[in-house]
Amino acid sequence: MEGNEMLNWAKDLFPIARSLTGDGVRETITYLQKINPEFSIESFKTGEQAFDWQIPQEWKIRDAYIEHVETGQRFAEFSKSNLHILGYSEPVDVVMERDALLQHIYTQPDQPSLIPYVTSYYTRRWGFCMAHYKKATLPPGDYRVVVDSMLFDGELIVADAIVRGHLKDELLFSSYVCHPSMANNELSGPVLMSALLRHIKAKYPSPRYSYRFILIPETIGSLAYMSRHLDEMRRNVVSGFNLSCVGDERAFSHVETRYGDSLADSALRAALFGRDNFKTYTFLQRGSDERQYGAAGIELPVAGFCRSKYGEFPEYHTSADNFDVVTAAGLQGAFDVMAEIIEAFESGLYPQCTVLGEPQLGTRGLYPTISQKGTHSAINARMDFLTYADGSNSLFDIARIIGVPLKTVLEEATLMAKHDLVSVADHPSMRC
Question: Which of 25, 82, 164, 354 is 20 to 30 A off residue 233, Cα-Cα?
């Protein structure tokens, strides 16, 4: 099962200390390239303009800790958890008294036993993150504070893989590789993307549609990537999905595009219909890179897809975001949703009935040969599918109209095509 393999990939990647830039991102992408060698790296230099933003300096972290001078006891050791360091901390090696040190320690008071994830990418400072209860127990006295880091003019890297299909029309999948050791908020998206790319190569060796997969640091990475590729993306991307927090088993979540009316929105509504604990969020509740793809003037048709939405599950941005949260079953559920959407595109999105009037299904073994009250309910989805397979409704539209899961519509579409009762197209027919 894909879920088990994705989980193993995530566990391999978990210890890596990732940030916006640096060796952690390189190591992560290198690992994912071994799964899908199609990923190629693109570099952006420090200071390079990306719309209204500039590429920041590269950050390198070797070690960090707080040491009580009198006892030699160490706290907030980077070597024990890479969440202990404030992301992008500048270097420091000083001795200071406890009260001054406390101003540089960040905690999550409402979750006192957890280490929070905190960053300061664009303002120079240093700091540590600790469980709130441990901060309260720091003994009085002086402390040596060490952050062995570097900030220097370097590069920010992104990676993409493009699978060319018969059509230039593209499906976009985007996820991020910039967070340290968090399983759901960081690693679930890239491993799902890796599984989907491998799935497309295996199941659709000559695909109808083209596919664009992007691995980026969140926010600055999507802006940088679009600063070079926006014209091409505007021409080609017909539907896209930002994959974030897709590894737990609690919910399925859809973050709509700007107006909630794109093909990506229709696809997610159809694929999530009938699944347990399905939630929809408007674009006003955006928070990941769907906000960059949907920004004014960009307006690409990219919806957000999550299991439990970022910010909505208690372990979010803390040390509790681990493999108690992310499971093989959770990842498998997310994979199944995306695989159904891909299958819909690859099946031909707009079916059209090939006969006039209601087809004679009985002669094809597709309809009960005994007519009696109560015997037709099981066949209703088939009849309803054919009723709305008029060339103007997508498979997603039909699932919504007749009120059945996308999986059921795909099964009916495949069966009807096998019996030459529908033809398929990739675009709606222009009917008078």
Answer: 25
Residue 402 CB-half CA count within 13 A: 24
Residues contacting 171, CB < 8 A, separation 6+: 209, 210, 211, 212, 237, 238, 239, 240, 241, 342, 345
Q: Does domain 58-152 have CATH number 3.90.1150.10?
A: no
Instruction: Give the pLDDT confidence score for residue 369 in this predicted structure.
Output: 54
What 3-state DSSP class applies to 315? coil
Burial degree of 365 (CB within 10 A; 0-12, 13-18, 19+):
exposed
d(CA 149, CA 165): 45
If you average pLDDT over every residue of the chain, what do you get?
95
Q: Give this prediction's pTM.
A: 0.95
Token readout for 194 is 């890796």
- Strand-pair partners of 160: 40, 214
Q: Which residues are paired to 211 by β-bridges? A: 163, 171
pLDDT at 68 over 50: yes
Class for domain 348-425, per CATH?
mainly alpha
Taking a C-beta distance cutoff of 8 angstroms, is the pair 406, 254 a contact? no
Are the C-beta atoms of 366 and 415 separated by less than 8 Å? Answer: yes
- Both tokens of 250, joined, read 């609690």
Give the CATH fold of the 2-56+155-346 domain: Aminopeptidase (3.40.630)
CA–CA distance, 205 with 201 (Å, rounded to integer): 5
Give the containing element (helix H, strand E) for 151. strand 142-152
379-411 tens-digit pLDDT? 888 999 999 999 999 999 999 999 999 999 999
Domain extents in the chain: 2-56+155-346, 58-152, 348-425
Distance CA 38, CA 60 (A): 27
Rg (CA), the chain: 25
How far from 245 is each of 115, 319, 325, 352, CA to CA, in Å?
Answer: 19, 15, 10, 37
Residue 214, token pair as written in the block: 């992007």
Q: Measured between alpha carbons, how far is 289 from 86 in angstroms, rounded to an integer?
A: 22
Q: Is the pLDDT of residue 375 over 70?
A: no
| Model confidence band, residue 362 (pLDDT cutoffs 50, 70, 90) | confident
| Kind and range of the H or E run holding 67 | strand 58-68
